Amino acid sequence: MTQRAVRSRRTMFERENELAAVEEALSELTGLRRDGGEPPDRPRGALLAFAGRAGIGKTTLLAEVRRRAAAKGCTVLSARGGEQEQHVAFHVARQLLQPQLAGAAESELRSSLGSWYAIVGPALGLCAPSEGAPPDQQGLRDGLDWVLTHLAVQRAPMVLVLDDAHWADAESLSWLAAFAPRAEQLPLLLVVGYRPDELPDHAEAFRGLPGRAGQRPLGLEPLSAAAVARLVREDLGAQADDAFCRECWAVTAGNPFEAVELTAKVRDRGLTPTEDGAHLLRDLAAAVKGSGLVARLERLGTSTVRFAWACAVLGTEIHPTLAAAVAGLGPEEAADAADALRGARILTGALNAAGTLEFVHPLIATAVYRAIPGGVRVALHGQAAWCIVDEGLGPSAAARHLMETHPDGDTWIVQQLRAAARETQRAGAPDAARRYLARALREPPPFEDRAAVLYELGCASLLTEPATTVNHLRAALEEPIADPELRHNTVYRLSQVLAHSDRLAEASATLAHEIRQTGDARVRLRMQSEQFMWDAFRADEPDSPARSRRLARLADRLTGRDLTERYVIGLRAWDATLRGEPAHVALHHAERALAGGFGWAEADRGFEVPVLVAMTFMYADRPGRTEELFATGIADFEAQGWHGAHLSFGYTLLAYLRYRRGRLAEAEDFVRAGLRLAERVGPLAS
After folding, report:
1. Alpha helices in 537-644 (DSSP H)
2. What is the pLDDT of residue 53?
3. For position 463, what pLDDT does the model report?
């Protein structure tokens, strides 16, 4: 039986109020009141948040929540933030949702997730990211909302428990913080535990979420002297006298974890729990944490220390074989080390090779990790990354370890970080991808790869840091670039971010410079089309009539055989509208542009030209055709997982169309929907 199992059944002292809140929430969730009567309304969910400093008993309380929920027939989803994994995108979301879905065949998953499969599947590790543009962060959150809502209804009643939320990754935590208020409308109880002093900025929403304590979490307080005395006597027997018990309380300050560990050490030492032995408690308490814990670990031997260090580097859910490889130990030596660490109440779990190890408490994991000498810690992270890739777990799993290594010009590290960034960005976590690529740039990459890394870094920063993106892309263009396609893509992306940053003249000039340099006719046409587009939006364009004449001559000789030609023809249609040419001329070119088809969510294109073509029909008094095109475009956004600024813009323009048609109530509904989306995305969305 594991130490955790023993501790989880320990009497919880002075937690009556917290357990009463848990019991009330579970009773309402399952439709049963403690008095046996039926509730006046249907079962509903709630949010319970428990806050307190390290060792105060949050984990034990949440274990009791899980036990009681399972006993009442609830489906229990459980996750835990990890100090070493807090920068791993979707780490918590995967812990919660992957076990509920991973056992199904791909066909079954596609059927149950429907259009959300390609959007949330990569984030949850259920499928590889597809080619093309990734979902935006709001679209991914909407997909995760749908999955959790679907599971909550399908497998009701459901209890979701998140421990150590202060260490949860930003992507998962921002999603859960936004989702949490919806728990009350679902058969779902959401229970969160965290250290308030360590809650990161992106999780501030948890402090004010509506829960059963009003607008604040339920705070866990240290145990009183009387409670510690009861705990000591439960462990050591009634012979523990008052002076001994009071000293136990004094040296632990009422911290439940430290009190439990202290009584275990008293028992291990065979110390008589009386006043005569009370003077030894302070030294014993010091051995429970910090330098005392480290000294206790060192006495277990060199191999055991290295195994503990490897486990601390790996974080949570530690596989023994992987820990052995990182520590450089053989199977038997690693098994002996694991047994010694379990006996010392440092590790728990993994009684067989198929299981997993974890530290008895996060405080122990933190102390062990911080005790590793700096150079050794860096080396262990490097070894962990190599072992993870060698085990076939992929570059994304190795990336967090590579982030802890020192730059040394290692090409393999650059390759792994770039691969991890591609996977992570396509899964919908551009911030994580940006961190990986920034680290790859510091390695540094081989001279011939530097431009490619700068380009990828610029793409990862596009929506969140446009000014930084411009710097990265311009730096890429200053490097020698052997691959023409890379150079062209860098120019396209740079012109887009300049234009979206209201620097239209710079966007046009960037394209004009490259048009003069390229000898590829198709590339030149693509660049001309984008230059025409940005110039059309400029209020300070120096010679717009000349630009219109050039555009007309070019568009009139194109057939629309590919997307670039259709974009040019579409711009010709909009220019005819702006210039007041006869409506049939503008409509002729608009229909030519649409004949070959183009979507609103193309991977490397903007949505500006499809919108302008649709608006051409509106100003030519074809509102029905305009609505048809907008409906198709909005469906493209939603299918791609673009639920942020793109969708907000689409709804707002659709509202304008309804307004022009005199359908004011519908126009108001659409513009409010657009505003709601914009508010969810925030003020910095591109």
Report:
1. 544-556, 563-578, 583-595, 608-619, 623-640
2. 93
3. 67
CA dist list (Å): 91 to 124, 138, 177 = 8, 18, 15
Contacts of 141 (CB under 8 A, 6+ apart): 174, 175, 178, 179, 643
Answer yes or no: are the C-beta atoms of 301 and 346 closer than 8 Å. no
Which of 574, 585, 681 is CA-nearest to residue 637?
681
Q: How many CA atoms lie within 13 A of 389 on its CB side?
A: 19
Query: What is the three-class DSSP state of 79?
Result: strand
Q: Hey, which residues does 159 pair with through a beta bridge?
A: 76, 189
Amino acid at position 272, single letter: T
Looking at residue 51, what DSSP letter applies?
A: E
CB atoms < 10 A from the CB of 678, how many?
18
The closest of 309, 234, 303 to 273, measured between CA atoms, is 234
Cα angle for residues 532, 534, 536 (degrees, 5° grid): 65
Contact assessment for residue 45 and residue 189, using Cβ atoms and an 8 Å cutoff: yes
H or E stretch at 593:
helix 583-595
Is the N-terminal amide bond of 331 cis, ω within 30° of 0?
A: no
Helical H runs in 315-465? 320-327, 331-343, 362-371, 374-390, 395-402, 411-426, 430-442, 450-460
pLDDT in tens, 121-144: 999 999 888 777 788 888 899 999
Q: Mean pLDDT throughout 365-390?
A: 95
Distance CA 502, CA 524 (A): 24
State the DSSP H helix or E strand holding residue 658, giving kind and residue range, or none if neither. Answer: helix 645-660
Report how far residue 314's alpha carbon sits from residue 85's, in angstroms, rounded to the nearest whole number: 9
Instruction: Report the residue count for the chain.
Output: 686
For strands 158-163 and 75-80, give the pairing: parallel
* Cβ pair 161, 77 in contact under 8 A: yes
Asked whether the beta carbons of 50 and 193 are under 8 A apart, the reply is yes
Amino acid letter, 466: P
How many Å apart are CA 78 and CA 560, to the nearest integer?
Answer: 54
CA-nearest of 309, 307, 305, 359 to 329 is 307
Residue 356, amino acid: T
R_g (Cα) of the chain, nearest Å? 30
Identity (one letter) of the amino acid at 244? F
Q: What is the pLDDT of residues 59-95, one digit of tens each?
A: 999 999 999 999 999 999 999 999 999 999 999 999 9
DSSP class of 562: S
Helix 302-314 with 290-298: angle, nearest 10 deg: 130
The pTM score is: 0.88
The 10 Å Cβ neighbour count of residue 128 is 12
Cα(88)–Cα(316) distance, rounded to whole angstroms?
A: 12
Q: Encode pLDDT of 433-451 as tens digits.
A: 999 999 999 999 999 999 9
Please spell the DSSP secondary structure of 433-488, one letter per residue.
HHHHHHHHHHSPPPGGGHHHHHHHHHHHTTTT-HHHHHHHHHHHHHS----HHHHH
Residue 190 CB neighbour total at 10 angstroms: 28
Contacts of 604 (CB under 8 A, 6+ apart): 133, 489, 492
On the CB side of 488, CA atoms within 13 Å amount to 19
Q: What is the mean pLDDT of the chain?
A: 89
- Quick one: pLDDT band at residue 597, thresholds 50, 70, 90? confident
**Tokens standing for residue 640:** 């791609």
Domain covering 3-219 assigned CATH 3.40.50.300 in the classification: yes
Instruction: Please write the tens of the pLDDT for every residue from 524-540.
Output: 999 999 999 999 888 88
Q: Which residue has the higher pLDDT, 173 or 37?
A: 173
How far the first Cα of the chain sits from its last, in Å, is 54
Report how far residue 436's alpha carbon sits from residue 72's, in angstroms, rounded to the nearest whole number. 44
pLDDT at 34: 44
CA 575 to CA 553: how far, in whole Å?
12
